[in-house]
Amino acid sequence: MFTRLLKYCCFIIGFISISFTLNAQSDPSMQGRNHEAFPYPYENFAFLSPRYDYLRIDETNYISKLYLRGVYTLKKRMHFRLDLPFAQSNYASASSNMFRLADISARFTHTVFNTGHFYWAYAVETSFPTASNAILGSGKWLLKPGIGSLYFMDNNRGSAVLAVNYQFSVAGDPDRKDVSIIGLVPNIDFWFPHWYIGYYPTWTYDFNNKTLDLPIDIEAGYLFNKNWSFALEYIQSFGARRSFDYEFAVKLCYKIIRNPETRQQTGMNFRNAALDKNLL
Q1: Which end of the chain is more exposed for a tag (fewer CB within 10 A), N or C?
Q2: Where residue 115 falls among pLDDT bands split at 50, 70, 90?
Q3: Pairing state between β 216-223 and 228-236
Q4: Using only C-alpha atoms, what is the Rg of the chain?
């Protein structure tokens, strides 16, 4: 009963949020969230994003997280991302419902080149076994390389990402199971005045646990001004071999973009320059 009520509340809140943003004034300044998969072609791009994430494993067990995500430009088209998570769970082995440090992760992403509206990039992510409890982390040092492409639609209408990654363990607790997970990231979002909506799934297959996740992942976000945005995300997994039931997240984001490359330099050739003007 509680699970159904929680799902209904998430859908109602998301619907109200989207309906509210439909009344916003015309200002094409929202950029979706595909910058989290591969960064936009700006020389100096950064954001800080505090988040709450609730993951329902099955009918009785869950893991919830409070974490801070930050992205900073190291140099032109190369970005660094850091996740600092604190988690808690109702698993008996978690020993406490208090939020404790989970596995910290970091990622480097480099947009190598572009051809017209297409941007090609690679990324390397690493996770550290910093969790204070076995339930809250893998107990392993993990690497996750990935490659992909980001496409910008004409007239600032949206973007799309297609990427593939592979996460595997390289060291750590020998008593913990090794990690070997391949992922496919087919993302697309659409931008509107002050808001966006997107489909952001990551389809994964876990070679060791034999689980397959093909979730539906919908996120809607609202831009309060040129820096602050708010988003709601809901993920529903399907299939007999899925590793979780559903997940939802609430996100705030503070963005900073300075010294953007010109449309001529990047070859994007958009006809609408309002995006740059509103984010400077």
Answers
A1: N
A2: confident
A3: antiparallel
A4: 19
pLDDT of residue 48 exceeding 60: yes
pLDDT above 90: percentage of residues in the chain: 41
Highest mean pLDDT among 4-8, 97-101, 138-142, 179-183: 179-183
Q: Which residue has the tokens 């916003």?
A: 24
pLDDT of residue 157: 87
Q: Other C-beta atoms within 10 Å of 59: how many?
A: 9
Measured between alpha carbons, how far is residue 119 from residues 28, 36, 71, 256 in Å?
A: 21, 14, 19, 21
pTM (two decimals): 0.76
Q: Are 198 and 32 in contact (CB under 8 A)?
A: yes
What's the distance, CA 190 to chain centroid? 16
Give SS3 for 124. Answer: strand
Do you know the residue count of the chain?
A: 280
Q: What residues pair up with 151 in beta bridges, in sequence order?
A: 118, 160
Residue type, 215: P
The one-letter code for the residue type at 151 is Y
Q: Which amino acid is at 153?
A: M
Alpha carbons 270 and 249: distance in angstroms, whole number: 32
8 Å CB contact between 60 and 91:
no
In the predicted structure, residue 12 carries a pLDDT above the cut 70: no
CA distances to 28, 234, 260 from 273, rounded to whole Å, are 9, 32, 12
What amino acid occupies position 190? Answer: F
Contact partners, residue 145, CB within 8 Å, separation at least 6 = 122, 123, 124, 125, 165, 166
